[in-house]
């Protein structure tokens, strides 16, 4: 891949967005005031149809300004410094003033990822100078006069600028210490890349060749996008299956995927993702359209009750529903893939040696909600790490679950592990113990249908009874997950304050010093991270992620 790519095109895209994000100046962007030339659909009409994906970055300062309601003083200083440094660098290196030179004509920013040229049969590998992908940026122009004035200003200041004629359109080739950049005006759009061929392909598209917008289903994705408040970016993959095939074709050294895996990937028809800023923080939503005849995973909404079995001090959580149903679907689909089926058969044979049935004893009884949680503890065997783990399973088949753990207890005893019961507030927990270190694992029942496995002896004491302050009633959990879509398949939840407290307490000084102040400032400005999955219908899957941010505080 071209080594200069990350140092040229990406900073231009990100830098433009960051400058606008800072709310530089006082002008007000009115939604719909720009011409159609600056819409995602219009910009995509000059993007070649072979593009693997496209992204659209908002230039609406109102949307980006929503970030100003969040942040610790340290995070605010970090953002302010970044904006000032960026503006200073632009002014020093290019004598560009964003307010005067760029803002009057900048209407929209789209970037597209194009595959590298197809490798010829005689070539074992692509030429060393050929990148794996090529980046193309399309800037929507709302004021052509201002844009041309800006272009002429740049041309006058760049000694290494020359023009290339391509099919009647002038391509500006600009050379500086970082390499070459190619730009061309296509009516109301400025296209830019550090690969001349990418700009030529955009010109071909402008002159009538198939475009990214002409792909099946693309117009709808580009017009609707994903519904997020104050959208700052949208990403589009209208032909996911074709994108996978193209990516594989342009990477001939990549090992071939198993047929069943490739089939599953091709079953995803399209993907669109949006990023927005609302009162809770930065929210990301992704929608995938799939072929339900191939993607047969049975979605089952989770009742969302398992979090009530965990304490409010829980650091992180992964919760869901119906492991047994998911396992049954995976087993059924594995029949079409001999390699996967062989792996499952080997696992079954190995477990039979210790009197366990993979399908019945391990997964068969896990038909309710489940949770995997990290819980802080500084006692006993957990003192060196500062936390332990808990697995919670709700089941309608207690008899099989108990039989499974009786077998596991017998296996532990056979390997010189002490297995003994202990009473915790009147409830029995069965613990696995190591001499002079204490219990490292315990299991028991919270109620008639809910069992737990505690990783670390002290966690058994926490899990044996329902907590007085459950996780689902905690302020942090509500803040991070409360606005995620319901019903859903479960949650991923991370409490950032508790995570940072654990890191600060447990991380050795040498490793702690490797975390930059900037990273610390960003992490400390977050309440946490929440994620959930939903399935509105058999052909649609949705993922929602929230970076829950702390409200702005005084300096």
Q: How does the SSE layout of this entry go?
A:
Elements: H1 9-21, H2 40-44, E1 53-57, H3 61-64, H4 73-94, H5 98-102, E2 106-115, E3 133-141, H6 144-157, E4 161-166, E5 169-176, E6 179-186, E7 189-193, H7 196-206, H8 218-224, E8 231-237, H9 240-249, H10 259-266, E9 268-278, E10 281-290, E11 316-321, H11 323-334, H12 338-352, H13 358-364, E12 369-376, E13 387-394, H14 398-414, E14 418-424, E15 427-434, E16 438-447, E17 450-455, H15 457-463, H16 475-481, E18 491-495, H17 496-506, H18 509-512, H19 517-524, E19 526-537, E20 540-549
Antiparallel strand pairs: 1-2, 1-8, 2-3, 3-7, 4-5, 5-6, 6-7, 8-9, 9-10, 10-20, 11-12, 11-18, 12-13, 13-17, 14-15, 15-16, 16-17, 18-19, 19-20
Helix pairs in contact: 13-14
């Amino acid at each position: 891949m071209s080594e200069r790519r990350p140092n040229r095109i990406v900073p231009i895209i990100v830098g433009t967005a960051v400058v606008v994000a800072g709310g530089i100046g006082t002008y007000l962007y009115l939604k719909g005031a720009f011409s159609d030339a600056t819409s995602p659909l219009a910009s995509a009409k000059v993007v070649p149809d072979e593009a693997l994906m496209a992204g659209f970055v908002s230039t609406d300062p109102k949307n980006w300004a929503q970030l100003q309601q969040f942040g610790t003083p340290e995070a605010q200083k970090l953002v302010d410094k970044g904006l000032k440094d960026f503006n200073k660098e632009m002014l020093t290196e290019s004598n560009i003033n964003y307010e005067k030179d760029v803002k009057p004509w900048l209407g929209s920013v789209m970037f597209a990822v194009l595959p590298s040229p197809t490798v010829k049969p005689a070539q074992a590998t692509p030429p060393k100078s050929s990148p794996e992908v090529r980046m193309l940026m399309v800037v929507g122009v709302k004021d052509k006069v201002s844009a041309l004035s800006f272009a002429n200003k740049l041309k006058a200041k760049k000694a290494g600028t020359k023009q290339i004629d391509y099919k009647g359109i002038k391509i500006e080739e600009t050379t500086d210490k970082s390499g070459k950049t190619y730009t061309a005006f296509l009516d109301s759009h400025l296209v830019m890349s550090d690969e001349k061929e990418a700009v030529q392909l955009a010109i071909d598209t402008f002159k009538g060749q198939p475009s990214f917008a002409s792909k099946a289903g693309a117009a709808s994705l580009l017009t609707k996008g994903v519904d997020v408040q104050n959208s700052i970016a949208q990403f589009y993959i209208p032909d996911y299956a074709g994108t996978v095939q193209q990516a594989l074709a342009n990477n001939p050294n990549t090992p071939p995927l198993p047929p069943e895996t490739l089939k599953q990937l091709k079953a995803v028809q399209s993907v669109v993702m949006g990023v927005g800023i609302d009162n809770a923080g930065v929210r990301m939503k992704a929608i995938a359209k799939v072929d339900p005849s191939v993607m047969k995973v049975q979605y089952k909404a989770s009742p969302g009750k398992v979090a009530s079995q965990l304490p409010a001090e829980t650091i992180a959580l992964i919760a869901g529903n119906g492991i047994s149903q998911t396992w049954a679907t995976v087993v059924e689909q594995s029949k079409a893939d001999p390699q996967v089926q062989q792996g499952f058969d080997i696992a079954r044979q190995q477990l039979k040696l210790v009197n366990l049935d993979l399908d019945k004893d391990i997964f068969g009884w896990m038909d309710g909600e489940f949770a995997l949680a990290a819980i802080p503890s500084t006692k006993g065997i957990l003192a060196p790490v500062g936390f332990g783990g808990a697995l919670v399973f709700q089941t309608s088949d207690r008899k099989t679950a108990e039989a499974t753990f009786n077998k596991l207890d017998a296996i532990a005893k056979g390997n010189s592990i002490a297995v003994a019961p202990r009473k915790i507030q009147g409830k029995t927990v069965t613990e696995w113990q190591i001499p002079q270190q204490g219990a490292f694992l315990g299991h028991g029942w919270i109620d008639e249908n809910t069992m737990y496995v505690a990783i670390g002896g002290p966690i058994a004491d926490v899990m044996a009874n329902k907590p007085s302050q459950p996780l689902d009633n905690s302020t942090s959990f509500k803040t991070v997950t409360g606005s995620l879509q319901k019903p859903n398949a479960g949650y991923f939840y991370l409490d950032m304050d508790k995570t940072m407290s654990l890191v600060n307490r447990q991380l050795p000084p040498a490793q702690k010093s490797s975390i930059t102040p900037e990273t610390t400032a960003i992490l400390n400005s977050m309440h946490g991270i929440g994620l959930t999955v939903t399935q509105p219908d058999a052909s649609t899957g949705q993922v929602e992620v929230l970076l829950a941010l702390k409200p702005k505080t005084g300096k």
